[in-house]
Amino acid sequence: MATAKISLNHEILRLAVPNIISNLTVPLLGMADFALMGHLKTDSVVYVGAVALGTTIFNVLYMSLGFLRMGTSGFTAQSFGAKDNKALHHGLYRSLLVALLLAFGLIILQYPIQWIAFKMLDGSTRVTGLARQYFYIRIYAAPATLMLYSFYGWFLGMQNARIPMAIAIVVNSVNIGLNFLFVYAFHMHSNGVALASVIAQYTGLLMAILFLLKKYKAFAHRIALNILLKKEGLIIFFKVNGDIFIRTLLLIFVLTFFTSISARISNKTLAVNTLLFQFFFFFSYFADGFAFAGEALAGKAKGSGSILMLKNTVNRLFIWGFGIAVLTGLIYFIGLKYFMYVLTDNKGILNLAKEYYWWVVLLPATGIAAFIWDGIYVGVTAAKAMRNTMILSAIFVFLPAFYLFFPHLGNNGLWLALHIFMISRGLSMWLIARKAVFKN
């Protein structure tokens, strides 16, 4: 039994650590973009704003389509556990085909997409004009970006987190390097940042194909299109991914609502809440590492038909998850007041942030269960249940909590509603886990 626990812990860390490293490369790229635009000698504020607006649009688009990675990961992990090589083969190419079709759809519809996006985003005429140029360049990375989602999910489902980590490191390194080249050598400014993203994404796609040919050569041969388009396979694929899509849209709604209300209170409150949320995002990079491990291992256990293995996996994931949450909470309790100085030296923002920082200290504890259960539900493809718990938590818990507490507590009420939302997600998924996760 002790050996089995050690082995399971090793598997969790083998998958979680590379995913954490992959996650941590993302903010480094954002910081590099900000720094490059922020240090331009002329119009730095304008270019920072242009990149910020353009990046926001793509963040929303790609986050909405994140089901390509999550759905592929769950299906692949179950097929891996069942040792069904045919399903592994079909699953990869079906996901890549859907990714390619969605990407072409984004490119074809780029004009109405940007029109709607810039109607919703408020920017000056010059900032918006530059952001449109950024959008029209970066949109052509869509095929590579979405196909990489499929590859990331498939590699993870194959219990391999090192390949996605290697790709993420190279993609972001190439992106940062080209940023410097295009901005400083060619003076392309925000357009250079967009072009660097396009080239970096196709570099990552090429790497993914090469890894497939070298590491998984048995799955690299051609497959007939009529097999991929079989009605039964497509129905299951879109049913699961449609539910994940709805779940993701509701999550985006809650986060956008939080930001919108922060801005409504005051510009200073918006700045404070944005500052504090950076520390929640930092925690999420670690929590998601274990959630991704949960996708791979829970799916593998489900595919093998071993409920006992699945239960052991869930228990171990929660031990690791709560350990990370407690450690992060303690670090924030001791040092968050000092960490904030790294991100800003504005005394007004820092003084106001100290009134609310303890909400961030508590967030790892109240949010970790939702992260871990998300990974488990994705792994066993219990997407309908995950969707329903998100509907419950976002519409019937978060919004009522906000309207109940905000009029009396102001910004504290907004943070309280967010905590109740996170607790509701974790608790609701736990309550229905016997039926949604552990059913035979």
Structure characterization notes:
The chain has 440 residues and is mainly α. The chain has two domains: 18-229, no CATH class; 242-440, no CATH class. Helices cover 88% and strands 0% of the residues. It has 18 helices and no strands. The chain has helices at residues 2-38, 44-64, 67-81, 85-108, 110-120, 125-138, 142-157, 162-185, 189-215, 225-228, 231-265, 267-304, 307-343, 347-353, 357-379, 383-409, 411-431, 433-436. Helix 3 (67-81) packs across helix 11 (231-265) and helix 11 packs parallel to helix 16. It is globular and about 60 Å long.
Percentage of residues in helical conformation: over 70%
The Cα radius of gyration reads: 22 Å
Assembly form of the protein: single chain
**Largest beta-sheet characterization:** none
Order of helices and strands: HHHHHHHHHHHHHHHHHH
Q: Which runs of at least 5 residues are low in confidence (pLDDT < 50)?
A: none
Count of domains = 2
Tally of individual helices: 18
Architecture blueprint of SSEs:
Layout lengths: L1 H37 L5 H21 L2 H15 L3 H24 L1 H11 L4 H14 L3 H16 L4 H24 L3 H27 L9 H4 L2 H35 L1 H38 L2 H37 L3 H7 L3 H23 L3 H27 L1 H21 L1 H4 L4
List keywords for this structure.
440 residues, 18 helices, single chain, mainly alpha, 88% helix, 2 domains
Short structural summary:
This protein has 440 residues and is mainly alpha-helical. Helix content is 88%, strand content 0%.
